Amino acid sequence: MSSTLKLSQLAIGRRAVVRGFPGQGPAVLRLREMGVLPGTAITLVRTAPLGDPLEIQVRGYSLTLRKSEAEHVLVDPVEES
Amino acid sequence: MTESGSIPPNPVRTPVYALVGNPNSGKSTLFNALTGLKQKVGNYPGVTVEKKVGTTFSQHGRPITVIDLPGTYSLAARSPDEGVVRDVLLGRRADTAQPDRLVCIVDATNLERNLYLVHQLLDLGRPAILVLNMMDLTAASGLNLRVARLEHELGIPVIPCEAVNGRGILELRLAMSRADLPLSRHRWDIPPAIAPAVAELQASLIENDRKQPLIARAEALLLLTDQDPVRVAGSTPLSEPTAAMLEGWKRRWQGEGVDWSGVLVNSRYEAIGRLCAEVVQRAARAGPAISDRIDAVVVHPVWGWLVLGAIMTALFLSIFTLAEYPMDAIDAGFAAAGGWVKHAMAPGDLRDLLTDGAIAGVGGVVTFLPQILILFFFIGLLESTGYMARAAFIMDRLMSRVGLNGKSFIPLLSSYACAIPGIMATRTIEDPKDRLTTILVAPLMSCSARLPVYLLMIAALLPGDRVPVGTKVGLMLLMYALGTGGAFGFAWLFKKSLLKGAPPLMIMELPPYRLPRMKDVLLQMLERASLFLRKAGTVILGISIVLWFLTTYPKPSGPATPEQQVAHSFAGTAGHVLEPVIKPLGFDWRIGIGLVSSFAAREVFVSSMAVIFSADNYEGGKHGDITPIRQSLAAARWPDGARLFTPLVCLTLMIYYVFAMQCVSTVAVVKRETNSWRWPLFQIAYMTGTAWLVCLVVYQAGRALGF
Question: Could you tell me if A49 lies within 8 Å of chain B, comparing CB atoms?
Answer without folding.
Answer: yes
